[in-house]
Each structure stands twice: as structure tokens, then as C-alpha cells.
Design goal:
288 residues, mainly alpha, MetI-like fold, two-stranded antiparallel sheet, 1% strand
């Protein structure tokens, strides 16, 4: 074989993926390594090594701590809610006919293809002080709510995230459910097992790899809601929805690169640890 190495192992696959690896290393991995190095300097160019001083200062920064609390709260509520709804809808759609199922899946996937700018205009009209929701409340005799300028903004952001990500997670769960052999459920039904027992003892354990993937994707996608949040409320929204992305975005515009790179390094480390923990949990339960 022409493209072979060692004991007849083909080299062609490596040559095909080499451009992608080079692009990843050049445009993603190397800039990240450089940014980690900046987090230990007083300034990017000609700066002095300050050790962990930037990290200590960051953890004492009120704006960073506010963004961290809000981000953790948002993820802790929106990610489980989104996954629970997606799994529930996937279970409801599973026994339906293929034609009906495909139509409903297509409807749930529509939010993924709608441009963010168009939807932001819709959200503004819906949640504005003189918007649609407050118009309905006024007709019902209730006091209008400042949806975007009060603690209710949290509910707005969670609603936007669930609306946009629900269809994608539902498709992933449908794929995971399709991989579970029907013989497992049929055997449990013959033995007299109830629906709850089958769901907790058969469906969920077999669905665990999909749950891990959906969890990681949901965590990553939860940071992407910043695009709609920024277009809807600006760079300085109500304190209840001031996220880590706002903190990083504002430091980028103020050219405070040591603080920015320190925050991104901590965020990347946290996401990496969460991913490792989820994969270890999946391997442990799969082994059991």
C-alpha cells in the first residue's frame, strides 16, 4: 500500500484529517494557550509576571462575582428544565407514526433556523413595557410588569433559551431512545413491570450516554443565549441577568486583557472539569 506506515497501517486517513488538525491548532488551541499566558502577566505586551495576582483580583471583583452567580443560577435552572422538557416530549413522540413524528420534529426545530435578529424583534414586542404581554395583563385588570428591567428578566432569558434549544435536545433524545432495543421493554412488560419501573430501570440507564451528551451540549449552548440577551437588553442589563459573558464583553471593549484572559481561563477550566465529571459518571454507571 502506498499510503502505509509501519505494519501496513494506512496513513491516508491521517493526511485527510491533518488540515483540520492544523486549523484547530492554529486558530483555536494556540490562541487559547497564549491567552492563558496573558492571565499571568500585568499586561499583554511588555508586562511583568504577576503569578496568581490576576486570579485573586478577579475573584474579588464584584462585577465578576455577580456574573458568576447569575450564570450558575441560569444554568442550574435552564439546563435541567430544557433537558426534562426535551426528554418528556421525545417520550411522547416516540410511539407516534413516522409521518406525524417527522412533522412535529420539524416544527420543534424551526427556532434553530430563525435568525437571532428577527427573533429579538419579536421578543422586544412581546416583553416591552407597552408590549403584547402587558397589553393582555392590562385587559385582564392586572398591573403591567417590567419584564426586561426587573427580576422577571431571568424568566425571559430562561424562556428564550428553552424555546431555542428544546428542539435540538429533543432530536438527540429521540435518537437515543431509538437505540434502546424494544426487547428490553417487552420483556419487562411481560414480567409485569410498570411504566415508571421501566422508565427508571431500563430507559434511563440505557439513555445515560445520550444524557451526558445532551448535558454538555446544553451547558455550551447556555452561553450562546448571550447573543439574544445582548441584542435585547444591551451590555449593561438588569443586575439579575448580568452574566459572565457581559463581564468578558465589557472587559474586551475596555481592553483589559489580563482580566479578560483570566476570566476565560477559569471558565474553560470549569467547563473542562464538568465534562470530565460527566464522562466519568457515565462510565461508572455504564460499568455498573
Amino acid at each position: 500500500m502506498i499510503f502505509s506506515h509501519g505494519q501496513g497501517r494506512p496513513v491516508a486517513p491521517l493526511l485527510f484529517i491533518l488540515p483540520g488538525l492544523l486549523g484547530f491548532g492554529l486558530f483555536y488551541l494556540w490562541p487559547f494557550v497564549v491567552s492563558v499566558g496573558y492571565s499571568f502577566l500585568s499586561r499583554p505586551h511588555g508586562g511583568q509576571f504577576v503569578g496568581l495576582a490576576n486570579y485573586v483580583a478577579l475573584l474579588q471583583n464584584p462585577a465578576y462575582l455577580l456574573g458568576l452567580r447569575n450564570t450558575l443560577f441560569f444554568m442550574g435552572v435552564s439546563v435541567p428544565l430544557n433537558m426534562g422538557l426535551a426528554l418528556g416530549i421525545a417520550l411522547l413522540l416516540r410511539p407516534l407514526g413516522e409521518g406525524v413524528k417527522q412533522l412535529l420534529v420539524l416544527i420543534f426545530l424551526i427556532p434553530l433556523v430563525i435568525p437571532s435578529g428577527s427573533m429579538v424583534f419579536f421578543w422586544q414586542q412581546l416583553f416591552a413595557q407597552q408590549g403584547i404581554l402587558n397589553g393582555w395583563l392590562d385587559q385582564l385588570g392586572h398591573t403591567p410588569i417590567n419584564w426586561l428591567g426587573s427580576n422577571h428578566a431571568r424568566g425571559v432569558v430562561i424562556t428564550i433559551f428553552v424555546w431555542k434549544s428544546l428542539g435540538f435536545n429533543m432530536v438527540l433524545f429521540l435518537a437515543g431512545l431509538a437505540n434502546i432495543p424494544k426487547a428490553y421493554h417487552e420483556a419487562a412488560g411481560v414480567d409485569g413491570a410498570g411504566k415508571w419501573y421501566i422508565f427508571t430501570r431500563i430507559t434511563l440507564p440505557c439513555l445515560l450516554p445520550t444524557v451526558v451528551i445532551v448535558s454538555l451540549m446544553s451547558i455550551v449552548n447556555s452561553f450562546k443565549v448571550f447573543r439574544e440577551l445582548y441584542l435585547l437588553m444591551g451590555s449593561h442589563p438588569h443586575p439579575s441577568v448580568y452574566m459572565l459573558q457581559h463581564f468578558m464583553n465589557n472587559n474586551f471593549f475596555s481592553l483589559n486583557y489580563p482580566r479578560l484572559t483570566t476570566a476565560t481561563t477559569l471558565l474553560s477550566l470549569a467547563i473542562g472539569l464538568i465534562a470530565m465529571g460527566l464522562f466519568r459518571l457515565e462510565r461508572r454507571f455504564s460499568h455498573d
